[in-house]
Design brief:
Helices cover 26% and strands 33% of the residues. By secondary structure, it is α+β, with helices and mostly antiparallel strands. It folds into five domains: 174 residues, P-loop containing nucleotide triphosphate hydrolases (Rossmann fold), CATH 3.40.50; 85 residues, Translation factors (Elongation Factor Tu (Ef-tu), domain 3, Beta Barrel); 74 residues, Elongation Factor G (Translational Gtpase), domain 3 (Alpha-Beta Plaits, 2-Layer Sandwich); 106 residues, 2-Layer Sandwich (Alpha-Beta Plaits); 111 residues, Elongation factor 4, C-terminal domain (Alpha-Beta Plaits, 2-Layer Sandwich). Helix 5 links the parallel strand 5 and strand 6.
Length: 594
């Protein structure tokens, strides 16, 4: 294929600005899909994506427009899946930046624009949803010019819903996005930018050929992993899988090489020819750093091997989450998993339950703390139950975020109140236009991961948007709150909280557990403690057997004698008895939304 006719582009935008709908119109306009098979969000192949109306995985497709071959990548918009966007951009020379004509620039619009600029990509800006009654394209075109420096008269107006302006957008992509600069005569260098596991065919990798050419039947070498394979099938997505004999420099397609070990074809891997090897691998991806940690345990202990295999397969498809085995005295064997955010955690858990038919318990999400021990050693801990007692620590630090919130100016006060209540520090406040303001706050990650997004949306009627990046560690007055049942700590309920909120957390957990734990034959004390100091207590009262029913009338000493005997039996039972906590109680007590 003539390299001058290839255009590799990605669609980037804030969540819900119409990326997948625009991809639909492009598929229709280029005749890639039979009209009878066309459906909304055609490229979103996962049931979960269609139900939630969001894109979770990047999707690539090859289109023909005029004389050009366009390799298009549809990317996710949510901040938790920003890693997918960065992977997509490594396979492109240009991007279509989509902005909602009724909402204007949002937090992820800015974040994705800076990503594209870092990758030195050509940016084609389009205002979408111009068919909406609330659309103000002229206002937001001038806002884009003011904030991003892209001239208002160069910004296209489109409606992904009706198809208006989409043809002109494709024309501009062909005219302004440069063609790939690879050399087909050089040794093969191809970058894997995505992979997924097919149970019948093994690993299916999405690749971008940078230099050289890759052919069916060829022996290839994975440079980072140091392993070899034979190319069984090579092809392109149109969007159906279509086999081809070879892919040249600048082309995007898929590769199947009979790989069964999921670790061999990770995203960022460089493929070269086994005969004439390239000297250097391509620059891969910066490994994403998990920010939220949670334990995942099978409801049925026998499902542990199934969960392990499921995590291994899902890790190939989504390399941005991590996992390692852990054991809990309350929940048995499971895995400690790291996620990019709360939505990411929710999606991974739901995919495990659906795709691998598992029923899982997840512990309350936590973040990674940095502890300085009394002997000077620095350790990182993501599981609250592993935090040592305070007399063994000299200080504890927690991760912070630099959050950028864009909101209509009328909600500035209520958002500042929210950030202040979450221990936030105002960094700067900037007006993008008279009606819209950008607030920058430094916030503890632990205060953001639970319900910050929900609170932000409800306080601003859904108009505010947020993007964030990591901002190191800072010392805080944090304490470890343990929940004790009959004097024994239950590791699943341990939590690290700020000292000011410790009492509230202890009260909430003890009250909730008192309602959930069934009554035993003896009193069960439920306590919340910081070190050895009890800060809250509730008691599950024992059953009282009505053994005196037949003793009414007659001497009262007979009745008291039986009650005393029963009391001693309960005391003995308490010393040897074990509190039985049903799994349902753990599930209810660990529910995130509570």
């Amino acid at each position: 294929m003539d390299q001058a006719n290839i255009r590799n582009i990605a669609i980037i935008a804030h969540i819900d600005h119409g990326k997948s709908t625009l991809a639909d119109r492009m598929l229709e306009l280029c005749g890639a899909v039979d009209p009878r098979q066309m459906r909304a969000q055609y490229l979103d192949s996962m049931d979960l994506e269609r139900e939630r109306g969001i894109t979770i995985k990047l999707q690539s497709v090859r289109l023909q427009h005029r004389e050009a071959t366009i390799n298009l990548i549809d990317t996710p918009g949510h901040v938790d899946f920003g890693y997918e966007v960065s992977r997509s951009l490594a396979a492109c020379e240009g991007v279509i930046l989509l902005v909602d004509a009724a909402q204007g620039i949002e937090a992820q619009t800015l974040a994705n624009t800076f990503l594209a600029l870092e990758n030195d990509l050509e940016i084609v800006v389009a205002l979408n949803k111009i068919d909406l009654p609330a659309a103000e394209p002229d206002l937001y075109a001038s806002e884009i010019e003011q904030v991003l420096g892209i001239k208002a008269n160069e910004i296209l107006r489109v409606s992904a819903k009706t198809g208006e302006g989409v043809s002109e957008l494709l024309d501009k992509v062909v005219d302004s996005v440069p063609c790939p600069s690879g050399d087909s005569a050089q040794p093969l260098q191809a970058l894997i930018f995505d992979s997924h596991y097919d149970q019948y065919r093994g690993v299916v990798s999405s690749i971008r050929v940078v230099n050289g050419e890759i052919s069916q039947g060829e022996k290839v070498h994975f440079m980072q992993r140091g392993t070899g394979a034979i190319v069984e099938e090579i092809g392109v997505r149109t969007p159906e899988l279509k086999t081809v004999k070879s892919l040249g420099a600048g082309e995007v397609g898929y590769l199947i090489a009979g790989i069964k070990d999921v670790g061999e074809a990770r995203s960022g891997e460089t493929i070269t020819s086994a005969g004439e090897k390239a000297e250097m691998p391509l620059e891969g991806y910066r490994e994403p750093k998990p920010m939220v940690f949670s334990g995942l345990y099978p409801m049925d202990g026998d499902d542990y091997p199934t969960l392990r295999d499921a995590l291994e397969k899902l890790r190939l498809n989504d390399s941005s989450f991590t996992y390692e085995p852990e054991t809990s005295s309350a929940l048995g064997f499971g895995f400690r998993c790291g996620f990019l955010g709360l939505l990411h955690m929710e999606i991974v858990r739901e995919r495990l339950e659906r795709e691998f038919d598992l029923t899982l318990i997840s512990t309350a999400p936590s973040v990674e703390y940095r502890l300085t021990l009394t002997n000077g050693e620095i350790v990182y801990v993501d599981n609250p139950s592993e935090v040592p007692q305070s007399n063994n620590m000299s200080e504890i630090e927690e991760p912070y975020l630099l959050a950028s919130v864009i909101t209509p100016s009328s909600y500035t006060g209520t958002l500042m109140d929210l950030c202040q209540s979450r221990r936030g520090e105002l960094v700067k406040m900037e007006y993008l236009s008279p009606e819209r303001v950008e607030l920058s706050y430094r916030l503890p990650l632990a205060e953001v991961v639970l319900d910050f997004f929900d609170q932000m949306k409800s306080r601003t009627q859904g108009y505010a948007s947020m993007d964030y990046e990591s901002d190191g560690y800072s010392r805080s007055d944090l304490v470890k709150v343990e929940i004790l049942l009959q004097g024994d700590p239950v590791d699943a309920f341990s939590s690290i909280v700020h000292r000011d909120k410790a009492y509230d957390y202890g009260q909430k957990m003890t009250k909730k557990l008192r309602e959930l734990i069934p009554r035993q034959q003896f009193d069960v004390p439920i306590q919340a403690a910081i070190s050895s100091k009890i800060i809250s207590r509730e008691t599950v009262k024992a059953y009282r057997k009505d053994v005196t029913a037949k003793l009414y009338g007659g001497d009262v000493t007979r009745k008291n004698k039986l009650l005393k005997k029963q009391k001693e039996g309960k005391k003995r039972m308490k010393s040897i008895g074990r509190v039985d906590v049903p799994q349902e109680a753990f599930v209810s007590a660990l529910k995130i939304d509570d």
